[in-house]
Design a protein that fits this description.
single chain, mainly alpha, Serine Threonine Protein Phosphatase 5, Tetratricopeptide repeat, five-stranded parallel β-sheet, 43 helices
């Protein structure tokens, strides 16, 4: 075997580190350009980009000196670089002179497989196999047959591959034999999953657990879960991992994989809990902390920061144990540092600490100029800050390193590929299975945007529909439940509420709420009025939804059986003013000197009743737009919503229903607060920017400032899906966009025009608020009779109120009616079994005959109740 043949065997066995070392040695001895080609191939596979670029330049300078085999190796480089057409041209030239060149036939078959020309690919693979059998070709054939849903043909190819592997066993290095064996087993597992032979797959996995070591068994368990997810069997994958965890409850890898599956399905809290379990088992694993920070980002910022800081601490402590950079672990250690620092940079960016984030991004890129996550994260921050040119420079670097990721990011920044070949490659990338499923919805959304830019509207809608359908697999959106919730909100926040609960809020006019259907133009409106010197745009704040969550937590804590919006009539003036003042304080922290601060959360249109309950003088701007344009803009937007409130946006019918719910809700608010809500039409803003701006500023109550017309030059962060649009001057191309897709709008029209018929509402109302709070305070003061009356008033209106049963039980215990008191506490615990202190009280009351002995315990609990209410 000559030297070049020896090196090409290393290529076949994918031993690129050995290939690199051998090439460098042989190049010292002789100047054959074929060695340089193979060295470039090794560099490319090892990710050594700078060395690869230099070596490839040498190869191309001496390409004319390459023989047929050298050109075939150059074609391999083109393939790895995804330069498929260039590879095809090279290989076709080779085959013109040497039609029986087995490796050229095989590589040309691979090119056709990459282009999804499967029949051609099979033809070339089989021609190559007829000359020389290669394991990889049988595996490729099996993959193609799987893609063509030919399970029997795929199985036949796997059998042939297995037979060949056993024939070659004695001549193969053990490492390569095991690698091929694993590839075949993976292919077999995929085949079983693809034809839903789950029992067969799990029987084989049981055999693996019984015959191989624990670590290998865990790896195969995760392989199976991944394959199930790739075939849209996410729930089955999760169930299988949970079963595996029964036998290996402390395995951090299983917990991590289950957490990733949970996140993909939109179960973020579940994912965080699983990651926390994994960290308990492997608390010095910085990668787990990085993953936790990523999961918590934008949802639990404090936890995200803590996790990122912990990841950095661990990653940097690790390097202190490494004595020299020659240590083979140093590279991975450096990667851990970069990942940890990137997690912290993303946290700083999310919290709008842009200077700190920029320093961190720059530190990463100074030492790791090709670290794609940092390039993308830094680019996204620059986009948010309106630094479009700087962002595009960073994204062009991403494109050089990873064309697919780069083009996707550039499309998101409205920089569209000009050639259809690039879009075809993106389409192939979208169809590569991953833990997300058989297709990538995010790439499909970008393809929709790109084809729309090329005015290929049928293609654009085709990809948008595919993207939306792929996301819907993971959604749990319930349009009926949303419609019922809207009806309940209208019922709870009727005009009568404000008549019976006067002076519930505070008189501040600081808050300005810009709201409307998503994609109606709320970001544009905010950007315009935030250009005023006395108005600060804080972006999409979750303050009002957080208040609602807090009210729901309190109601669950008390076991009232109620939740928002029903419970609004139980807020005392002291409580509601306290909530309003807390919101005011939070808003003022954004801009202490501002006269008005904008909260631009589109879906706050559902929460206008609560806003006016807390801030009667708040200014509310409702943004309207042609509903057909709203619908299509939502349909073409990748919200990555999963189980969140944007679940409606992935189906034209549910978008239509949401539009109808929005219209009815806004009619209700306009009738409840006549003349207090300003309606602004997006089309009017586009046609008459100054007139619309004057109207909004006059409504808010500030003097005219012409600077607001330069809204696209405003230096402020924007973190919504409209981040690119509002950096542009006013443009009219989004008006009547629906006409391009008119023939696809039947489901939208049907959903919009469907009769709104929510379920019947049965909601109790309280004549006055605070029976529980008043009763607790009376009990603390020793006014047992008055406390008893207060609790009984609540129970008259709400017989299921657990905390009132409990407190009335305490009153009876205090009065010496032990049995009655115990029965009431039992009844309370049936409604709220999570109350540990109630359980302790019941246990002690059951044991003690003398009330005085338990009095201190009961008072201690009452103090906790009162402190919780005061807080």
């Amino acid at each position: 075997m000559n030297k070049l043949t020896e090196l090409r065997v290393l290529v076949e066995y994918q031993q690129y580190s050995h290939l690199k070392k051998a090439c460098l040695e042989y190049i010292k001895q002789e100047k054959n350009p074929a060695f340089t080609v193979l060295l470039a191939l090794a560099y490319r596979h090892l990710g050594e980009k700078q060395n690869f670029d230099k070596t490839l330049a040498k190869v191309l300078a001496h390409q004319a000196l390459l023989d047929v085999d050298g050109l075939c190796d150059l074609a391999a480089i083109r393939i790895v670089n995804l330069q498929i057409e260039q590879a095809v041209n090279l290989l076709q030239k080779i085959l013109k002179t040497q039609p029986q060149h087995a490796l050229a036939l095989a590589r040309l078959g691979w090119c056709y497989m990459a282009q999804e020309q499967f029949d051609k690919a099979l033809s070339f693979f089989n021609r190559s196999l007829a000359i020389e059998e290669r394991l990889a070709l049988y595996i490729n054939n099996a993959q193609i047959h799987l893609r063509q849903f030919s399970a029997d043909a795929a199985q036949q190819q796997l059998v042939l591959a297995q037979q060949l592997l056993e024939q070659k066993k004695s001549n193969l290095p053990e490492e390569n034999y095991n690698d091929y064996k694993q590839r075949l087993e993976l292919q077999q597992l995929q085949l079983w999953v693809s034809i839903s032979q789950f029992a067969q797959a799990e029987q084989w996995l049981t055999h693996i657990r019984e015959t191989r070591d624990h670590e290998t068994s865990i790896q195969w368990c995760m392989h199976y879960a991944t394959q199930l997810a790739e075939y849209d069997q996410h729930q089955l994958a999760s169930e299988y991992l949970r079963e595996a965890l029964k036998e290996a409850s402390d395995n951090s890898l299983l917990l991590l994989k289950l957490a990733e599956l949970s996140q993909v399905q939109g179960y973020y809290m579940q994912a965080v809990k699983l990651l926390n379990r994994a960290i308990k088992q492997d608390e010095n694993n910085s990668q787990l902390w990085v993953k936790l920070s990523s999961f918590c980002l934008h949802r639990m910022d404090k936890k995200a920061r803590h996790a990122a800081e912990k990841a950095n601490e661990l990653a940097y402590a690790l390097t202190e144990t490494i004595e020299t950079s020659d240590n083979p672990f140093f590279a991975s250690s450096a990667q851990l540092q970069a990942s940890a620092k990137h997690a912290l940079a993303m946290v700083e960016s999310s919290e709008q600490n842009y200077a700190q984030a920029e320093c961190l991004f720059q530190e990463i890129l100074d030492s790791h100029p090709h670290f794609i996550p940092a390039l993308q994260g830094f680019a996204q921050q620059q986009m948010q800050r309106g630094r479009i040119d700087e962002a595009l420079v960073l994204l062009e670097q991403v494109k050089q390193l990873d064309p697919i990721k780069g083009h996707i990011s550039l499309i998101n920044a409205r920089q569209f590929p000009e050639n259809s070949e690039t879009l075809a490659q993106l389409e192939k990338a979208a169809k590569l299975p991953s833990i997300e499923g058989p297709v990538s919805s995010s790439i499909l959304f970008q393809l929709a945007a790109a084809w729309e830019k090329h005015q290929e509207y049928d293609k654009a809608f085709h990809f948008a529909k595919q993207a939306n359908q792929s996301v819907q697999r993971l959604l749990n959106y319930n349009a009926k439940a949303h419609r019922n919730a809207c009806a309940r909100t209208r019922f709870a926040f009727s005009r009568a509420l404000y008549q019976h609960r006067p002076n519930s809020g505070i008189s501040s006019s600081l808050p300005v709420y810009v709201l409307g259907m998503p994609r109606s133009g709320t970001t544009l409106v905010e950007q315009i009025i935030a250009g005023h010197s006395q108005i600060f745009g804080a972006g999409e704040l979750g303050v009002i939804p957080q208040v609602i969550q807090g009210l729901n937590r309190w109601e669950r804590h008390t076991g009232s059986g109620r939740c928002y919006p029903d419970c609004i009539d139980d807020l005392t003036t002291l409580t509601s003013k306290g909530i309003a003042n807390n919101i005011l304080h939070e808003l003022q922290e954004y801009a202490p000197d501002a006269r008005h601060i904008i909260d631009k959360m589109p879906h706050n249109f559902e929460n206008i009743g609560l806003i006016k309950f807390l801030f009667p003088q708040a200014k509310i701007i409702s943004v309207r737009r042609d509903p057909r344009d709203i619908a299509l803009s939502n349909y073409f937007t990748d919200y990555q919503a999963k189980h969140s409130g944007m679940g409606f946006a992935y189906d034209l019918s549910t978008i239509g229903e949401q539009l109808a719910d929005h219209n009815l809700m806004m009619q209700h608010w306009q009738q409840t607060f006549p003349g207090e809500i300003l309606q602004i039409n997006y089309e009017d803003v586009v046609d008459n920017l100054e007139g619309s701006a004057r109207k909004m500023l006059a409504y808010i109550g500030v003097d005219w400032e012409p600077e607001v017309l330069n809204f696209n030059q405003l230096e402020r962060s924007i973190k919504t899906a409209s981040v690119w649009q509002v950096r542009q001057p006013i443009y009219k191309t989004s008006k009547a966009k629906w006409k391009r897709y008119e023939k696809y709008l039947a489901p939208l029209i049907k959903g919009t025009n469907a009769k709104i018929a929510p379920d019947k509402i049965d909601m109790l109302t309280l004549p006055e608020p605070g029976f529980l709070i008043a009763g607790v305070e009376l009990y603390r003061q020793g006014e047992l009779d008055a406390a008893e009356i207060s609790f009984k008033k609540m129970l008259h209106h709400n017989p299921e109120h657990a905390a009132c049963h409990y407190m009335l039980g305490l009153v009876y215990l205090s009065k010496g009616y032990m049995q009655d008191g115990i029965e009431l506490i039992k009844k309370a615990l049936i409604k709220a079994p999570w109350q540990k202190q109630w359980q302790k009280t019941l246990t002690q009351a059951s044991k003690e005959a003398n009330l005085e002995n338990i009095d201190e315990v009961l008072k201690s609990y009452l103090n906790q109740v009162a402190d919780g209410e005061n807080n």
